[in-house]
Amino acid sequence: MNIYIGAAKLEISMPGNRSLKDKRQVIKSVIDRVGRSRTMAISEVGNHDLWKSATLALVCLCEAPSRFEEGVSEVIDMLEMGGEAEVSKESRWVFKPEEE
After folding, report:
1. Is 38:74 a contact under the CB 8 Å cutoff?
2. Residue 31: which CATH number?
3. What pLDDT, in 10s, does the model give residues 56-88?
4. Does 33 map to a domain?
5. How far does CA 43 lie from the centroid of its chain?
6. Which of 19, 27, 40, 51 gives 60 a disulfide partner, CB atoms 3.0 to 4.6 angstroms apart?
7. In a domain, 100, yes or no
8. Burial 44-77 (b: 16+ CB within 10 A, else e)
9. Looking at the 3D structure of the chain, how many domains does it have?
10. pLDDT of 39-49, one tens digit each?
11. 88 versus 1: which is more confidently predicted?
């Protein structure tokens, strides 16, 4: 059985936000929705003090790199289709641990 570790960093902008409270509501909503519907861990990892942008990290264990790629694409679609945020930059990595 193959196991892969997928990691992604998403830089998002939230032009409709007018305060840090608005940002917290958007980030909490995104984290809750991803946690309920995906087998992925998600966390805000950067731009904590900026209210119109955030950096999110996603991590997933999967049986194939394509499953991770599909999951990240679904998260990006969810962010952008909701109109709450726009992904301005993304980075993705997939690692395969060495077998013993």
Report:
1. yes
2. 3.30.70.1120
3. 999 999 999 999 999 999 888 888 887 778 999
4. yes
5. 7
6. 40
7. no
8. beebeeebbbbbbebebebeebeebeebbeebbe
9. 1
10. 889 999 998 88
11. 88
